[in-house]
Each structure stands twice: as structure tokens, then as C-alpha cells.
Amino acid sequence: MKNRVTETFGIELPIIAGGMVWCSGWELASAVSNAGGLGLLGAGSMTPEILAEHIEKTRAVTSRPFGVNVPLMKPDAPKLMEVIAEKKVPVVFTSAGSPKKWTSWLHERGIKVAHVVASSKFAAKCEEAGVDAVVAEGFEAGGHNGREETTTLCLIPAVRRATSLPLIAAGGIATGEAMLAVQALGAEGVQIGTLFALTQESSASEAFKRRCLQLNEGDTKLLLRKLSPTRLVRGGFFDAIEAAENRGATGDELLEIIGTGKSRLGIFEGDLENGELEIGQVASLMCDSEIEPVEKVVKRLVDEYRNALSKLTANN
Amino acid sequence: MKNRVTETFGIELPIIAGGMVWCSGWELASAVSNAGGLGLLGAGSMTPEILAEHIEKTRAVTSRPFGVNVPLMKPDAPKLMEVIAEKKVPVVFTSAGSPKKWTSWLHERGIKVAHVVASSKFAAKCEEAGVDAVVAEGFEAGGHNGREETTTLCLIPAVRRATSLPLIAAGGIATGEAMLAVQALGAEGVQIGTLFALTQESSASEAFKRRCLQLNEGDTKLLLRKLSPTRLVRGGFFDAIEAAENRGATGDELLEIIGTGKSRLGIFEGDLENGELEIGQVASLMCDSEIEPVEKVVKRLVDEYRNALSKLTANN
To answer: How far apart are CA A37 and CA A65, in angstroms?
Structure first.
């Protein structure tokens, strides 16, 4: 499973754990890195001080490469970047902004950069910006999402044509079969969110994890198109947003319903009724699963991938 | 490429051309069957008399198996079925209704039956109904779509678990790489719409085909969730629906905007401004392609599939 993605980041397996708000703390990031993948800290829900603490704790329990995901629209992104550089984190995944903004700055400090996109247009901009790898994330993904609503199956081949960069597929990938499928489409690695958000090491509340492991098909939907399209899990918060959208609520009216601190309330504190719950569509494929440790999950991914490859070869 | 799908329908390649309204007449169906796949007539836009004519014309130019797609919510579905039985069509693909309704009736007449679903729940119902194969169609697909909005990448593994029936993947498949990808997920064949809708043999207007070959990512969207979710192409009709939905229009108000005969107007007559244009999301991957003959398209699919398989094997 060695390729340009594993070489770029100095890892064993081309499996990256998405840096998810309220899920991706030091426990999850270090567990994924220790299992041979690349763990990312989710700075989207961290202050610079908290991020510094999580970087230190990650480093204390793994000697392997790890990274930080920084949503560039976050007002304190510059301070987060300073912490990352000061602490000599080897990898940064940027999202929700222009890849031109930070790539050179990070490269000057010896830090590898991947940028998350949802279209081939932005993938081409990544190449211009000189990033080391591009993550193409489809409509299936949880949380914030692209306006084009392009699914992973349609997006990966489009991004593959648009850039020669190492390509990491994201959105809808929770099995080794799906890893093989996106490889057939031209991806060289995967960024996995949902599956890792629901492991033992994820810092999400147990209530959130249990709820997400009981979802049926159709229990997550992309809403908030008038603001920033976001995939949410059904529940009180979801219902309020959906009802408002159905009656034609404006962006401002939606902002008022959303209020502040709702993703912390839902994901971290486990208030399933009033909180904002974000997970990928693929959660329904994990319905009735246990909350498992990362090591077991990564081993299964690799086994599934190898078995699927053998089967595909034998059938052809 | 022989498997349960090719055996079930007596065809060479596990490639089925979706029976699409205003696209899938005798020219397209016979061309796909003659190329080794399974061509379907789209009875959704045909009267029983017109269907009878298309069956005769198909049979006049191919001795290979072909079929008819019958949307079961169509008021004249019983009459269409009578025509199909009378003309001894070997295969029927049913959609938009219960698979229990017609399967036995068709089987008694020696006709093979596949049913189209958008969820694993309905796939299980297909197995109970005794259909010969199930088509699982994801969110990417053009036209009418499932309420769950499950993408092909998430849907195929779910349906694969829910049924042991021969499984045909649909939605987002326009290349041999995508054929290989859905095979990795457990599919044994593909139903392809968009790619065939834009061939020379499709009965859609040239204006429609040319417009669909100029789409960028994000130029089709799923709208009409308050009625029957439908993937539409941007244009005057799309804009009117989208604007109405954004201001909270009810289902009745949307019905009034839609009026009647709009898909014929858009797809068949080529009125890109006032007509309803339906195509899959994957059209953007075909941007700037030529309008090609079916034979060339099918040959390319097979070549791409074989090359992708060799590449996947060599890289592992």
C-alpha cells in the first residue's frame, strides 16, 4: 500500500483520519498515527492554547507523523498556524479557504500541506498553490460540504483529470471495499471521517457516537444551502432547520436558529435534541456496530481492502 | 465480464442502458443490445401504441435481448405491460412503485424482471417479490431520484448486504473506471443513463445533447423534494423551480410552475429555456465530448474497464 501519499507524509498506510471538530483530539490523532495512518487534530474546535496542548499530548504518545486540520475561515487561523510552526507539526491540512494563503508560509517552515476541495476547479488552484496533496471530498461527507454537491464517485475522476498531485479521496469511505473503489477512480489515499469519529478514541460524547451508530439511510441530509451547505443528522436541531428552510427562511433567519456553540453542544456534550450533529452519510452502513478502538478499525480496513482486491482479481 | 447479470439477461456485457424518457427509443435500445449490452426502451414517455411500434422496430434491427423500462406510477402501466407480454419482450425493468405488483405476472409470461431502488429497504422488498435482479440507483442519477439522497458509493454496499440478488449499480457511472469501482463495492453490472442519453442514437434533441455536454460541476441539482426529488439541469425551468423553493413554495405551487409536457419540451424538442432538462451529475465529466455512436462508447467502456483493472492489479 505504499504510494505517493504514504511517501509524502512518511506513513505506512494511505489512510488519513479527517481532523473533525469535537472528535479529533490527541487520543484519536495519535491512535491513527500509531496504527500506521496519518492522524489529524481538528483545530476547527480548538483555541490556539488547546491546540498547543493537544499537539504536546499527541507527541507524547506517538513518534510517528501526525497533522492538524485548519479551517482557514476561522478567525484565529493565523494564531493556530503560529502554534503549528512553533511546535514543529510535520503536516497541515487546510480547508475552507484559498490554498494560496498559507502553503508557502508552511513550506518555508518545512511543513507538508494538503488542501481539501470539493471541485476540480479548486483542485487546479491547489496545484498552482504548490500544495503537496489534494483531498477531494464528496457530497456524502459529514459537516461542511461543497456547493456543487458532487458525489465522491463523480468528483474523484474529475479531480484526477484536473491535477497530477497525490490525490486523497474523502466522503463515503468507511470500508476497504470503498478504499479500493476510489483507487479504481484514481485516488491514491483516503481521508476517513465518520468511521474514526465513532471510535473509542474520538473525543465526541458517547451519546453522539451511539446515536450515529443507529442511523438508517436518509437520516443525514445536506441542509443550510443558503449559508454553508452542511450535512446534519436528524434530530431536534435538524428538524428546526429543515422546517425553516421548507417555509423559505432567509440566511439571517437560519443564523438566528443556529445560534452559537451548537456543534459543541451536540457532538461533544451529547445533547442530541438541541445540539448540531454532524456525520457522514456512510454512518448508515455502520448501523448497529460497536464503538471500537482505532487499531481494530484500521486492521479491518486493510483486511477488507486486501480481500476486495483478491476478489476483484479472481472475478476478472 | 460474464457473471450473474449477463447470464440472467443472456447478454455479453453487464452493461444496461437505462430506459430514459425521450431518449430511449428503438435506435438507442437496439444499438446497445447490438453492442453486447442490454438496451431498454423508455416506456415512461410512450403510449402503449408508440411502445408497440418501438418494440417492433427494435426487433427488426437486433436479434439480441432487449427490454422495456416501465415506471409503475404511470397510469397506463397495465396497458404497457399488455403490449410487452403480447410482443414477447424478454426483459422488463420496473421502477417507481412496488416490485410485488408485476413480478409474478411477468414471470408467468416468461419475462425476466429487474426493479430499480434507491435504498436497501426497497432492495429487500425486491428479493421478497422474487425479481431476477435489482438496480440500485444513487443520488448522482439524472431525473427522478430517491428521498434518502444516498449516493452510489454509500448505496451499493448497503444494497449488497440487504440482498443476494444480482446487483446492478446506477448513478454516476460513465467510465470503465467507475464500472470497476462499483464492482469493488459488490455490484455485478451497471445501468448507464447519462452517457447513452448523449449518444447519436438517443432520441433526445441535438440541442439537449449539446447543452448536456457543456455542463460544469454543480450544473445539475436535485430539486422538487416536496414532490418527487428530481435531478435537473440549470436553465430557465430549473431557475424558476429553485427560486420558488427558496421562497418556500408548496408542492401545489411547484406543480403549477411545472405544468405539463415540460420534459418532452426540454429533452425531445430542445427548448432549453422553458423545458425540463434531466441528466445525471456525471455529465460534467463528459464536458466538451462529442456526440458519439453507441458502439464506440461501449468499446471505450470495456477498454477503460480492462485498463483500470490492469492498473489496479499492477499497483498492488
So the answer is: 9
Mutate to test the interface with A, among B153, B185, B194 (most CBs of A within 10 A): B153
User: Do A168 and A138 lie in a common domain?
Assistant: yes
pLDDT in tens, A123-170: 999 999 999 999 999 999 999 999 999 999 999 999 999 999 999 999
Q: How far is CA A160 from CA A6, A167, B297, in A?
A: 18, 7, 21
Long-range contacts: B308-311, Cβ < 8 Å, 24+?
B308/A184, B308/B176, B308/B177, B308/B180, B309/A312, B309/A316, B309/B180
CATH of residue B65's domain is: 3.20.20.70
Residue A316: pLDDT over 80: no
The region, left, alpha or beta by phi > 0 then psi within -120 to 50, assigned to residue A130 is: left
Q: Which of A176, A203, A230 is the endpoint of a domain?
A: A203
- Other CB atoms within 10 Å distance of the CB of residue B73: 12
- CB contact residues (below 8 A), chain A span 211-250, against chain B: 216-218, 221-222, 226, 246-249
pLDDT tens-digit series, residues B98-109: 999 999 999 999
What is the distance between the alpha carbons of residues B258 and B241, in angstroms, rounded to a whole number?
A: 8
| Consecutive H or E run containing B257 | helix B251-258
Distance from CA of B261 to the nearest CA of A (A): 26
What is the rounded average pLDDT for all residues in chain B? 97
Same domain, B235 and B106: no
Q: What is the ipTM of this complex?
A: 0.97
Q: Are residues B102 and B137 in the same domain?
A: yes
Domain boundary among the residues A157, A176, A203 is at A203
Does any domain span residue A297? no
Beta bridge partners of A221: A232
Q: Do B79 and B166 fall into the same domain?
A: yes
Distance, CA of A93 to CA of A70 (rounded, Å) = 6
Give me the total of CB pairs closer than 8 Å, taking one residue from chain A and one from chain B: 147
The CA distances from residue A257 to A127, B58, B201, in Å, are 38, 57, 51
pLDDT tens figures, A4-51: 999 999 999 999 999 999 999 999 999 999 999 999 999 999 999 999
Chain A residues within 8 A of B184 when measuring between CB atoms: 177-178, 180-181, 184, 308, 312
Residue B13: phi, psi to the nearest 5?
-115, 140
Overall domain count for chain A: 2
- Taking alpha carbons only, the member of A201, A288, A286, A273 closest to residue A240 is A273
**Structural domain of B166:** 4-204+285-310
Q: Give the model's pLDDT for residue A306.
A: 97
Closest in A147, A153, A180 to B152, CB measured: A153
Element (H, E) at A93: strand A91-95
Same domain, A148 and A104: yes
Same domain, B74 and B115: yes
Residues A235, A112 within the same domain: no
A284/B contact by beta carbon, under 8 A: yes
Helix (H) or strand (E) holding A297: helix A294-314
A 10 A CB-CB count for B261 gives 12
**Do A134 and A98 share a domain, yes or no?**
yes
Grid cell in block for residue A169: 479521496
Residue B315 lies inside a defined structural domain of this protein = no
